Amino acid sequence: MENAVTNAIRVVALGNDGDGMAQTPQGRIFVPGTVPGDEILLAAQNGTHGTLDRIVVPGADRVDAPCHLFGACGGCRLQDMALPALLEWKTGRVTETLQRAGFDPIPAPQAHQVSPHGRRRVDLAFRRVEKQIVLGLHRRHGDVVDMSECTLLDPTLFALLPPLRAMLHSLPAVRAGGDIQINLLDSGPDLLITMDGTPDANDRRILAQFGKKHGIPRISLQGRPPETLALTGPVFHHFDDVRVVPPPGAFLQPARAGEAFIKSAVLAGLPRKGLKAGIIELYAGCGTLSFSLAEHAKVHAYEGDRAALACLKQASGGTRVLPALRDLNRQPVMATDLAKAAAVVLDPPHAGAGAQIAQIAAGRPPCIIYVSCNPAAMLRDLTPLRDAGYRLDSVTVIDQFLWSAEVESVCVLTLPGASRRNRR
C-alpha cells in the first residue's frame, strides 16, 4: 500500500468533457472515471489519455453512483461526483468563459440545478441482439447498453421502454435496428423513429395499436420532412398558456424545471422601461420563450426551421408574437433593424450564433439576453460584444443535463449609459 501511495497521482480538476485532469512527469493527462481530489494509480498512459487502474484515496466530492449502469451506459459520465460539486464546477466553467471573453467585473452567478428523473426528451438507439431488442444509449465508443434503469428519465418515459422494446421486436420494418427520439409533450410521448427497413401497412397497424394502447398520439418516421406513421389523437404542448402543435422531433428544453429557470432569467433581464420599441427574438423555435416575452412587448420572432416556424405561426394568432422565417447564418437580421429594438433575445444552437453576432455588435441594441448551451460557442459569440462595449449585468447557470459536462447559461448584457435608467 505504501508503494501504491508513493506512485499515486492526484486529480486536480475536470477537463471540459468531464474527465479528471492530473499532472504527471510526462505532462497533463485526462483520466475518465475520476473526480477532483482522487489519488489514483494509472493502468496505462497514451499521450494525454490515461486509463484508471484504481483509486487509492477518494476525493471529498466522490460519491457512489446512483445508477447501476454507470460506467457502461454512456448517458452519464459524472455520477460519481456529488451534485452540489458538479453545479459548482459548471458555474466555474461559465465564469471562466466570461473572464476569457474579457468581462470585468463578473456579477455573482445565480445557479440552479434540476432534480433527477425530470428528463422529458431523449434520443435512444435500438438493436436486434439474438431474440430481443436492446434499447438504450451507447456506451462510450461502443455498442448500445440496454436501459434497464435510469436516474435521468421522467418516470412516464422510463415506463414506456419495456413495451417499446416488445413493439420494436414485433415490427417487420426493424431488421438490425435504428434510433428513436422521444419528446414528452403535454399530449403524451411523441415518437420519431429511424429504422433500417421500409414500413408497410402491417407496420403502421402495429404502431397505431401501440400508440392507442400506451397514450402515444403520434409516431413518425424520420425523413425530410418526417412522415406520420400513426396518428391516434391530437398532438399538443403548452408554452405558458398558449397551445402549440410541435412538429415531430421538435426541440424542447430537456427538463421542465430547466426551461422554467431559463425563462425566469430571460424575463428578469428585460428592460424595465422602453419596451414599446419591441423585442427581437432570434432562434425562436416553436415559441419556448416567445409567448412569455410577448406578455411584455411585441416580439419579432425569427426562426430558420420551417416546421418550427409553422408551429409558432399557427399558435401566434391573438398574441404579440410576429413570426418570420429566416436562416440567421446565411441571412442575419441586419444591424439597422436590431438597433431599433429595446432588447434582443437569442438562444442559438450548440454551434453558436455565427454571422448574426457581427450584426448585433454593429446594431448596438441597448439590451442583449444571450442563452447558451455551449461555453465554447459562448466565448466566440460574447467576445465581439464585449469588444463593442457591452457590460455583463447578470449571469444565470442552469444544470439541466445532470451528471454530464453540459451546462446552460443566461447572460444579460447592456451598453453603459444606453439603458441604465431602464434596468430593474
From TrEMBL:
Domain of life according to the entry: Bacteria
PROSITE patterns associated with the record: SAM_MT_RNA_M5U
SUPFAM superfamilies, per database record: S-adenosyl-L-methionine-dependent methyltransferases
Pfam families xref list: tRNA_U5-meth_tr
GO MF entry, a single one: methyltransferase activity
Keywords assigned: 4Fe-4S, Iron, Iron-sulfur, Metal-binding, Methyltransferase, S-adenosyl-L-methionine, Transferase
Record: active site: 373 (nucleophile)
Residues the entry annotates as binding S-adenosyl-L-methionine: 253, 283, 303, 347
BP terms from Gene Ontology: methylation
InterPro entries on file: NA-bd_OB-fold (IPR012340), SAM-dependent_MTases_sf (IPR029063), U5_MeTrfase_fam (IPR010280)
UniProt cross-references to PANTHER family, sorted A to Z: 23S RRNA (URACIL(1939)-C(5))-METHYLTRANSFERASE RLMD, RNA M5U METHYLTRANSFERASE
Family according to the record: Belongs to the class I-like SAM-binding methyltransferase superfamily. RNA M5U methyltransferase family.
Protein name per its UniProtKB record: Class I SAM-dependent RNA methyltransferase
